Fold these 3 entries.
Entry 1:
Amino acid sequence: MSWQGIEGHDAVVERFRRSLVAGRLPSTFLFVGPAGIGKRAFALQLAKTLLCEASPPSHMAPCNACVSCRQVEAGTHPDLETVAKEPDRTEFRIELLIGDLEHRMQEGLIPRLSLKPTRGQRKIAILDDADFLNVASANCLLKTLEEPPLGSVLILLGTSEQKQLPTIRSRCQIVRFRPLPEETVAKLLLEKGIVNDPFEAERLAALSGGGLQQATALADATLLEFRRHLLAQLARPRWNSVALAKSINAFVEDAGKEAPPRRERLRRVIGFCADFYHQLMIYQSGGEAPADPQLREAVAAAAGDWGGDAASAADRLERCLDALAHVDANAHPITATEAWIDDLAHAPL
Amino acid sequence: MKITFDREQFMSAFQTAAAVAPRNTPKPILSNVKLEVSEQGAVLLGTDLEVAVRMNVEGIEIQRPGAAVLPVARFGSILRESSDERLSLEADNQGALVKGARSEFQLPGADPAEFPAFASFSEEKYHEVPARLLRELIRRTVFAADVDTGRFALQGVLVELEENSIITVATDSRRLAKMEGPAVSVKGHSNKGMMTIVPARAMQLIERALADGDAEVQIAARSNDIMVRSPRATITSRLVEGRFPKWRDVFPVRPKAVKIELTVGPIFAAVRQAAIITDQESQGIDFTFADGTLVLSGRAAEVGRSRIETPIPYDGPKVDLTLNHKYVADFFKVLDPEKNFTLEVVDADSAALFTTDDGYGYVVMPLSREGR
């Protein structure tokens, strides 16, 4: 079932329907779930529902025709504020929330929320990339989350509640979004024209982890090719860490001259590795082998002769997650890769 | 939509509407001005979602009504650089075509329906205030608003519209400025019981958009916004959510206080001189009233000290208090040097009250004198 073009989140839709019918919508939310599964689309659709001038919110059926609906779609509605981390930054800067030093508390999201709504009764703010809020930005949100201005609804979007400060978590209603089923990912890939071949769409969906963003990235053939190479290496009982680190660094540098695409690619590579150890851990604890043939082959080969058990796979998985955190924290990519691969190769079995 | 227009007149209206458009915004459509052309006339609309300005444009010949969005920077430059007396404009969702006698400009367009809509002035109940007075009401209070500490209700100016009066109040909790003037309520318009707090920036825009030549302006306070209409322009501003302090309780009523009649010019000059010897840490200057003289003295570690004497019509017992010179200067800055005012003081721990005969009042809390 889908709601207003939102696929695969029926439980969440139901939850909002209940609280809207009861007329008791909380005012601060933290939407969590993997990237690319439609949290933002859902938040926008919810904004449209709340702002629509033709249909009451409890019907959950915005008309898509009134001025409000059209302005939400065009991103120009005066009572809908959206902010996101600037693409070239690694942190969500405090200036986006309360203005720069000269205009403290005069510009940015929080002062804008302090005004009364223009058209209706509600104001909605969508704060994207909440994962990247730094301590200062997160702290300056606390007062607004604690006592939101009358009639406002604040929605934070992130991948995990663990990435938020406890003070933020405790002030928000947490709404969990589950990864999309593979069929839905395949369907969306075809609908959005990311791939044209239904067979290709299914294959990507299987690798996507339920997120459209990952599926889209994997539509890039070089990335898939590198994944094959990486899995072949990891499947061996012993591998040359220096050579592998070198090939990863070369591949990452191929992504472009700028830091952001390189960092993005490195995150993907670490993700592949984490996935591998995750599956290996499951397999060695007696779980099922993964569906993807390449991954299954690699996991089966490694389980046969690498000499480790589920616990040592878990250690390596943890090291991969640390590496991701280092990349997010702006560690020097080459050094981070070398240290990470070296640790993987030499961790005790 | 198709029109021809008088370039000079169009430009003056366009620039006023464009002044509201934000410089950098995540909503690109806001860096446009919307032109609405109907049988009744043409209106230019600019907004940053906080304040919206509607300008009526004269000198337009309408071939076909409709709407268009015009980019602030490029269209503004066309108006400025063109030397034609009249230009023609044809626009649809795809774009706009501007033609002069020997020039032609094609601009990309956007859907005018995406431009945020603000209501036009259709209120039947409103207050009528002379433009000159409204500007004074704004100028004399807006500086006292507290713009940067995050107490949102104090970031604006409270506007109270009563039977025969209009009152504006602003405070940052250390000083409070209030001005009251006569106004005519049409059909019983009043905002009693509502909190009409207008953001300080919007107040400044209103002040600038009004011309002293405008005779009467109309003000209507609604639950979420306030509208001000002059013959040329309609300005709408969103209100600040929150509660304004009970300012009437702050205004001291002290029959026994010392009241001294003074003139702005000489006292302001003395305050400016005394303020030379102050620094960031000690912004206070001591006011001593006694024996027909006001002594102002400033002192600051490593800067020195100052002592300025001014004759005043006062012979009562000595009164001492310390005031922040910036706050005092703010009061003088909005008044003519020849203007008379009354200064009311009690002692070092009570507020000083500055009043004029035209409804202006200004309360300043004294600084602590400990350690002096």
Note: Residues 2-176 of chain A form a domain with the Rossmann fold fold (CATH 3.40.50.300).
Entry 2:
Amino acid sequence: MYTQAMDTLAREAGDAGLKPVRSAEDMRLEERFDARIDAGDFIEAKDWMPAHYRKTLLRQISQHAHSEIVGMLPEGNWVTRAPTLKRKLILLAKIQDEAGHGLYLYSAAETLGTSRDQMLAALHTGKAKYSSIFNYPTLTWADMGTVGWLVDGAAIMNQVPICRCSYAPYARAMIRICREESFHQRQGFEALLTMMQQGTEAQRAMVQDAVNRWWWPCLMMFGPPDAESPNSAQSMRWGIKRVSNDDLRQKFIDATVEQAKLLGVSLPDPELKWNEERQQHDHGPIDWAEFWAVVGGDGPCNQERLGARIKAWDDGAWVREAALAHARKHTPQQQAA
Amino acid sequence: MSNTEASTEWPLWEVFVRSKAGLDHKHCGSLHAADAKLAIQLARDVYARRQEGISIWVVPSNQIVASDPVDKSNYFDPMEDKVYRHPTFYALPDALNHM
Amino acid sequence: MTASVHPRQDASAQYLLRLADTCLILGQRLSEWCGHAPIIEEDIALSNTALDLIGQARALLTHAGRSEAGSPLLDEDQLAFLREEREYRNVTLVELPRGDFAFTVLRNVMVASFLKLLWQRLASSSDAELAAIAGKAVKEARYHQQHAGDWVLRLAGGTDESRRRTEAGLAQLWRYTAELFEADAIDDAAAASGLGPRWSELREPWLAEMNQLLAEAQLSAPQDSAFRSTGKRGVHSEHLGHMLTEMQYLQRAFPGGVW
């Protein structure tokens, strides 16, 4: 999902193919760097790294961070309407965790030589992307459980390999995130299971409707097919990306089909079928036109999501300024920037 | 971006947490806060939500002095040829293997 | 459509509901900030406060839902989601819309200071369960008071704009605090049974703490007025109805639903 960033790079300003002229020293450094990667070494913030490695990581980590923050909004939509106090607390705690994950990731990105404000400016002006899944609306309470089950499920599948990312600050952030995320998917599944097994007919219909709307967008979270992701090769070489889009997507489908059976919901793909020869599930075609439309800004909620983030930031400007002004008056020796 | 942007941003702080008495403070990550008091409070909210009775240190990021990895060979290489400092150098009877 | 429930009407239950509902409604208001705070770090802090308050409400509602003999009559969710508006006993102060950040931190410090003082007294309640809830809650209230109080100082002493907004918030909120310190027969019964203090007894210590904060912020408390809000008696402002509509929707719309 977060490696969507690198795949969409292929469609944006042409990085592909152009290699700058490099000095002998640069080539030596890059050879040593590649050797470190091959040896499974971790790269830390102050280590030498190729400019393209730095740029790729900065883009991926910051877009991952943006995804966590924007991801708070579709779930935040139901906090005031949670049906029980326990569900309200669980949802609020989950969203809080996502805010925290965003923070860990912004911190990791800042080690590469950027600032939080710069990253947010890129997000708010539309230069930086966030995971396209969050541009879909949460229309019923069952969407909360479904997002936990499918969206977090897909995210976990993406995130575990990144815990072994060659860039250590990112790997460390991911380990922390994976540890906290363990309850998110479980809670989502449990909320759906409760409604399916103990709830009313109306609740069961609500769950099935939510699954029908979220299934295909979740499959798109893993990014375009490998054949259409040229930048993946370089990212794999550098230990940033560990598993291919198609492999992750297949793994997700195979795991989720079994979970859907436990829940008693159907998945909206008539071509979903176990293939005995491949020992995997075959599935129907994904509508990549929809994916690119949403990535390009024309999804159901793109305007609302970005609008909400920009508004929160702009409305909060006087608060941030006031806190800085107060700090400067009271601790003159503290450098404000 | 421009200098004026830098001066409107809340400064960055590094956070260290000791989760249990007897352990060391461990670096957890960083956060932005306008002043030290807020940094401590936010560190508790961001990094210590699941823990009780812990100690938090916050340090402005620009106050951290770090060794330069380019000099790594000067600081750390001299240790490599003194293998007698490492416990694995010594062959001990099996009974003492866990020392 | 799920039918409404009716809580116990005796003085002890009503005394508990005033506290429970005040925590619940303020928690609900604070949860509205989720995803919209001025900076992510503060988003987490505000959510933490909401979580603490709703947690306190749960414990109190569960307790208030039992009969005087201790057997379960209504659970926390029935009480939280299925009462008629007139049976909610929160002070009006906490149902006011969240306003801007200055309004929010001012209300937070006012309520947290009050709750801290109340929880401190309730820690020695004749009701063992209430005393236990209070023992935990007082620590949370102390932290909320600290965090919100520090923000009031920053905003009052920050920029011209933040000061202006803080003064405006104070002017709007102050007259709603009088309700916190009104005592009636329910307080009298609680004091007599040892359940808890009359809320009027907290006025002096609360004013002392608030005035200390306001002095440090170089703000002046508005004049007392004849205005009295009446949420504790179930007669609310126009705001609560809208809040409850949102909060109760799913429980009302899915009769027999299991969540």
Note: The mean pLDDT of chain C is 97.
Entry 3:
Amino acid sequence: MASLEVVPPETKLEVKDLSFFYGDFQALKGISLDVPSNSITAIIGPSGCGKSTLIRVFNRLYDLVPKARVEGSVLLDGQNIVDPQIDVVRLRRRVGMVFQKPNPFPMSIYDNVAFGPRILKRKGNLDDLVEHCLRRAALWDEVKDRLQRPALALSGGQQQRLVIARTLAVEPEVILMDEPASALDPIATLKIEELAQELKKDYTIILVTHNMQQAARASDYTAFLMMNPERYGELIEYGPTPAIFNRPQNKLTEDYISGRFG
Amino acid sequence: MSAVARFSDNDFASGLRRRRIKDKAVTGILSLAMAATLGILLWVLVYVAIQGLQLIGPEFLLSTPPGNPGTAGGGFLNGILGSLIVVGTAALVSVPLGVAAAIFLSEFGGNWFADAVRFLTDVLIGVPTIVTGAFVYAIWVTRFGFSGIAGAIALGIVILPLVIRTSEEILHLVPAQLREGSLGLGASKSQTIMRIVLPTAMPGIITGTMLAIARAMGETAPLLLTALGNDLFVELNPTKRMSTLSLQIFGNAVTGFQAAQARAWAGALTLIAMVLIFTALARFFSRRSQVSR
């Protein structure tokens, strides 16, 4: 893979030969990739190729699925997070997640952001923390006068930024975004992308998207996943985003990004 | 090229007419069904109100029935208090238990044990309430005698499966994304249930619970075999035989005396009013306690 022009950055998440099964069905096979810290890594690929499954491994949300099983390893700062012995609650505090559909809790804007700190019984001034997180999520100016209003009254784009603020409030290291803009209009989408650029200074961001322009615009690295004929997802190509989009090494990648399928 | 072009204008017009007629017919049938349903409901309410309003008043609500059922006057105070005590005791035990069971079924229910519980709950819903009464008679009344507690046990068994089933359905309606959102923030499963799932489902759970309680308020058959009734004086001790509104309505209605039947109508109106007031109160408080909607 042509990645000689960048200085190799520090690796935050190291995926090694990862396979994933839903019961007998294999969803992912032999995925290996290094996610550099303080960067945005996009995961692209056609529907059903396992993009969402892959990032749900990173915060062990797949634990909720009965009969889900993992082989291989995923190292977060060198610690294997797919180890059954690991404390998933602690892991999820380090690896936050923003979902495809904005999912604010049915409570006030303030309580949404304060939810994480409250359950974790964080010390310190909650008002300041809420303001800080809303500012970082570029939502403060729009909601500062109505923090006690229900979060569900916000627009879709605002809800998604609220969810990002809520995620920031537990001070994660990695933020997983599962098609965060697929339910949003273009302007709200751009806002989320700008926000991601801003946040990568402090966080490692993994962005699943089926929108190739978004991957090209918003990410530093791109991983291309595809379903192999036996229906499990495979990593076809991974590298710096400009290289993937300008000089794809694999014919499949080239076909996909030029819109020939997918 | 387009689908429309293949039809002549005539075809199109007649097709449109047919669809309009069909549309009108279906709308008509549905409106009729609704009118019939609403009509029956209103008929019952208005009829009970007209009959009940003839007697209902402070005297009816604050006194006990006369010693001789043929005598006019008197009231159902002992039945009103008895219903509150018996149904209240039943609800106090069955509602928390039922909601807890529903949480188990909905949040931890992917195994054979949960399936067995679900099946038994459905069976329990189908059991005629007189059978429940006979069961409590056999295991409790034969040993400890007729009492308010025996009545509460019977009613508790009647409403428990209703609370479980309705609460479970409501809990299933809480979007999975909310659970994932909470777990994704590092909340434990119990925190997620207590702080997100339950509050979100609460208005629905309360509605389901109120329906179950309303059902219990009206149950008579199981109480005949358990609480038995006591028309003579106000009894507040649930270890003694006790009257309830439903029992007094039944007892007075079957006498054949005009005065007693008038009391039964007033009692029926009181029962409906009590259920309505409880439902309204529950709605009011659930709306206030709920964080938003």
Note: Chain B touches chain A at residues 110, 175, 177-188, 191, 195-196, 199-200, 290-293 (CB under 8 Å).
